[in-house]
């Protein structure tokens, strides 16, 4: 079960034309940040933290129950690591945490089940979904893995951090290409939109 979830949504979205948290699939669609929050709550997350830049939250409107904003003031150069550090200050030191960038696709039921199953082993510290040999998002991990974000002034990237657990890292094969989505350009958004319409299309 996911106790907490973190959506890293503080990116400026220069190539998308505005903050990534506010990007949408269609002009009248919900912002990506809210799509992630709703999906994570459906998967059982007790609380979802949306990491945003200052001034972005009002544009999201009323947040769903169990969702709250964490404002990141980290230097842009730190990227997602700075956002994650801001979130960790609001996380308890134990329990399961799901971490996803906002420019990925929302967590699905199948991937959720696969990641949770991998962490049933008490020796497992983190689980990464893998499609055709490539690691993707979101990541499910034990809160203690994030301890460097509590103590280090310049935290490591999450990718670098996940190499540290060694045998504690579980690479979980999944039959869902959506875990590889990286929606950081208009072209990528157009490509992956088809996967939102047809969730299990693997062509």
Would you mind describing this structure in some detail?
There is one protein chain. It is built from six helices and eight strands, in the order βαββαβαβββααβα. The protein is an alpha/beta fold. Strands 1, 2, 3, 4, 5, 6, 7 and 8 form an eight-stranded mixed sheet that branches. The radius of gyration is 16 Å and the shape is globular. It starts with a strand and ends in a 6-residue tail after the last helix. The mean pLDDT is 89.
What order do the SSEs take from the amino end to the carboxyl end, as H and E? EHEEHEHEEEHHEH
Q: What is the overall pLDDT average?
A: 89
| Percent of residues in helices | 10-25%
Largest pleated sheet? 8 strands, mixed
Oligomer: single chain
User: If you compute it from the alpha carbons, what radius of gyration comes out, rounded to the nearest whole angstrom?
Assistant: 16 Å
């Amino acid at each position: 079960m996911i106790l907490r979830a973190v959506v890293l949504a503080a990116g400026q979205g220069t190539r998308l034309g505005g903050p990534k948290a506010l990007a949408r699939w269609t002009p009248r669609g919900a912002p990506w940040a809210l799509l992630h929050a709703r999906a994570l709550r459906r998967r059982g997350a007790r609380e979802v933290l949306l990491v945003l830049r200052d001034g972005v939250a009002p544009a999201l409107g009323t947040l769903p129950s169990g969702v709250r904003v964490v404002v990141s003031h980290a230097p842009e150069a730190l990227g997602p690591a700075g956002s994650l550090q801001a979130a960790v200050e609001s996380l308890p030191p134990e329990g399961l945490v799901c971490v996803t960038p906002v420019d990925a696709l929302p967590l699905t039921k199948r991937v959720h089940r696969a990641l949770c199953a991998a962490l049933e082993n008490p020796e497992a510290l983190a689980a990464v979904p893998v499609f055709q040999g490539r690691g993707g998002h979101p990541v499910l991990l034990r809160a203690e893995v994030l301890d460097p974000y509590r103590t280090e002034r310049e935290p490591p990237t999450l990718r670098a951090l996940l190499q540290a657990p060694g045998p504690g890292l579980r690479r979980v094969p999944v039959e869902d290409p959506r875990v590889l989505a990286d929606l950081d350009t208009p072209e990528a958004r157009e490509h992956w939109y088809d996967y939102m319409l047809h969730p299990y299309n693997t062509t």
